[in-house]
Amino acid sequence: MPTVKQVIDIINQIAPFSLAESWDNSGLQAGDPGWPVSKILIALDVTDKALAEAETLGCDMLITHHPLIMSPEKKIDFSKMPGAAILISAGSRIAVVSAHTNLDKARDGLNDYLAQKLGIVCTNVFIADAMQNESVDQMLGIGRIGRLDGAMTLEQLACRIKEKLGVPRVRIIGNPGNMVSTTALCSGSGGSLTTQFLASGMDVYITGDLKYHEARDIEGHAKSAVDVGHFGSESIAVELLKKRLGRIFEAEKYEIVIHTYDQEQDPFLTI
């Protein structure tokens, strides 16, 4: 039976942890690298409900996109996160592992998968990674630049995104009738890269968490954008990890059962 460390090593093959941003905390969040693994639950976030599901299913590991711990903790309070998760991890022997910005930036990682689902042919990275200077792989970095599989209106693109990602609504910036064919995309929160989008020459920016003044800048430059939301653009990380890990486990003949947590919802509700 493979160990937690061996599974982490496989995740490192898919999305090298060396790609993670300096502020990120991808990797082992809680648990023992030597624990055996026979069942895994994959989720977007480390929540009490996801951990309860992992316990119910008898899982040995919870793999998430978003890390449990993002900044140093001065104390571990078992009554609230992240201490509550650490307590469950220790008591139920469930290792918690996260693949965050390393999965975002890797080749065939989250941004490539997002582009694939939306019918976008990637031609370059949006923001090149510093490692590119040391690597023959030129598709490492934040976001992607590409072209749609055919010109369409902004409204048509928004409707496609809703359908392909299964989200009930998106926000658009620009005239719904604007024709778009080239795009920059960035999963998660990409508002801080608005200036780079405007300099890229692309027609439309697909991302999440755009702010008011960023939207005004895009509007002022006669460009377009689709704000999918943070959850909407990253919830697909669950199915991506299941596919990628499943193929490697099968090739390595690891008898590991993979479950996905399908009860997660966007924390923002519109009323």
Description:
The relative contact order is 0.16. The mean pLDDT is 95. This protein folds into 2 domains: 4-102 and 235-259, Udp-n-acetylmuramoylalanyl-d-glutamate--2,6- Diaminopimelate Ligase, Chain: A, domain 1, CATH 3.40.1390.30; 107-228, NIF3 (NGG1p interacting factor 3)-like (Udp-n-acetylmuramoylalanyl-d-glutamate--2,6- Diaminopimelate Ligase, Chain: A, domain 1). The protein is built from 10 helices and 11 strands. Helices cover 34% and strands 24% of the residues. It is α/β, with parallel strands linked by helices. It has helices at residues 4-14, 48-57, 83-92, 101-105, 110-117, 154-165, 194-200, 212-220, 230-234, 237-251; strands at residues 27-30, 39-43, 61-64, 95-98, 120-128, 141-153, 171-173, 179-189, 204-208, 224-227, 257-260. The longest helix is centred in the last third of the chain and has 15 residues, at 237-251. It starts with a helix and ends in an 11-residue tail after the last strand. The chain has a 6-stranded mixed β-sheet with strand order 5-6-8-9-10-7, with helices on both faces. It has a 5-stranded mixed β-sheet with strand order 1-4-3-2-11, with helices on both faces.
Short description:
Belongs to the GTP cyclohydrolase I type 2/NIF3 family. Keywords: Metal-binding. With 271 residues, this protein is an alpha/beta fold.
How is the secondary structure organized here?
Layout: H1 4-14, E1 27-30, E2 39-43, H2 48-57, E3 61-64, H3 83-92, E4 95-98, H4 101-105, H5 110-117, E5 120-128, E6 141-153, H6 154-165, E7 171-173, E8 179-189, H7 194-200, E9 204-208, H8 212-220, E10 224-227, H9 230-234, H10 237-251, E11 257-260
Parallel strand pairs: 2-3, 2-11, 3-4, 8-9, 9-10
Antiparallel strand pairs: 1-4, 5-6, 6-8, 7-10
Binding site for a divalent metal cation: 65-66, 104, 230, 234
Keywords: Metal-binding
GO molecular function: metal ion binding
